[in-house]
Amino acid sequence: MNTTRSAFLAGLRDQAPGILGNIPFGLITGAAAAAAGIDPWLALGMSFILFTGAGQLAAISLMAQNAPPGIVVLTVVIVSLRLMMYSAAMAPYFRHTPTARKWLFSYLMTDHAFALVTTRFDKHDPPMHMDAYYLGASSTMWWVWQAGVAVGLFAGTLVPVTWSLDFAIPLVFLSLVMPALRTRSHWTAAIVASLTAAFCMSLPLKLGLMVASVAGVLAGLLMERFRNVGTEGAS
Amino acid sequence: MSGFDWSNWLTVIFAGVLTLGIRASFIVLPPDAKIPAWLLDSLKYVAAAVLPALAVPDILFRDVPTGEVFNFYRIAAGLTAATYAYKTKDIFGTMALGMLVLWLLKWWSPL
């Protein structure tokens, strides 16, 4: 990583497993839009404007049910809120990045880019060509994602349903969240959110997702508070 | 339905602006900005809550065989993949393993 070029390529190489794993996700997102009868241009525009698989899928399924626009926006925001946490974690790496580039890098931010950068580098001592490395990882993810959605839009329905390719979507979420479950509070948040999501499955308009997310965060906070009180009492 | 779908396009653009704002929030903020402690505390648990909330209904209730409540093949494949992800942090391996277990159970299960 001595030059910007080698840093760009290193980022691309390190992100390659995540990019490959995301291809079925993109195909299915495109296919889901086609199956839901979403206008192909709107589906491509969504992919370009939102650039977030989980948000796109939520928006597609809500638009297909003719949900009120407010609900669509609110659900996309809830699904995207975790990106604010990533933004906080990644800010130190881009402290010296020019402002315009900060906006571009923010737009390109994904779960995968966050996981890559924060696990590989020390935030107090980011590598010299951090920006080129990040661009190599995240811009490639962008192209492959857009291509995957486009192909899925026109050909995704050709994959036989019996292959259950849609199972790749929960697998992406699992592969991203499991390594992040480091403390008992994180586990509590995940378990409470999972149970709530299961029980609220039949709520209309993906409201179960909202309820489960809020319940999970509150449970994590409560567990943290409870554990802190416990340690204070013991000391 | 004919003509340009203004309502959905505006919805997407509005959601996109908010999503960009969420992503950019802390990155474009000056380093000395004061951020409320409750916000930072809650953010810690957002990914741990939202990602499972997205995944779990798709694992439990998709393609449920007639007469069953849950899809047990997906549960078994999901638990295997989750364990592997927890131990290895290997994204592609997790996907491959999860799909493989699901296909094996679906097509070669004696049940």
Plain-language structure description:
- The complex is a heterodimer of chains A (235) and B (111).
- With 235 residues, chain A is an all-alpha fold.
- In chain A, 74% of the residues lie in helices and 0% in strands.
- The radius of gyration of chain A is 19 Å and the shape is globular.
- The mean pLDDT of chain A is 90.
- Chain B has 111 residues and is an all-alpha fold.
- Chain B is built from five helices and no strands.
- The longest helix of chain B has 23 residues.
- Chain B starts with 5 loop residues before the first helix and ends with a helix.
- Chains A and B meet through helix 1, helix 2, helix 3, helix 4 and helix 5 of A and helix 1, helix 2, helix 3, helix 4 and helix 5 of B.
Q: What is the string of helix and strand elements of chain B?
A: HHHHH
Helical content of chain A stands at over 70%
Tell me about the biggest sheet of chain B? none
How confident is the prediction overall: mean pLDDT of chain A? 90
| Spatial shape of chain A | globular
Oligomer classification: heterodimer
Largest interface: A-B, 92 and 67 residues
User: Could you list the spans of chain A in which at least 5 consecutive residues all have pLDDT below 50?
Assistant: none
What is the alpha-carbon Rg of chain B in Å? 21 Å
Percentage of residues in helical conformation of chain B? over 70%
Question: Which class do the helix and strand fractions of chain B yield?
Answer: mainly alpha
Listing every helix as H and every strand as E from the N terminus to the C terminus, the arrangement of chain A reads HHHHHHHHHHH
Beta percentage of chain A is under 5%
Rough outline of chain B: extended
Question: In short, what is this structure?
Answer:
Chain A has 235 residues and is mostly helical.
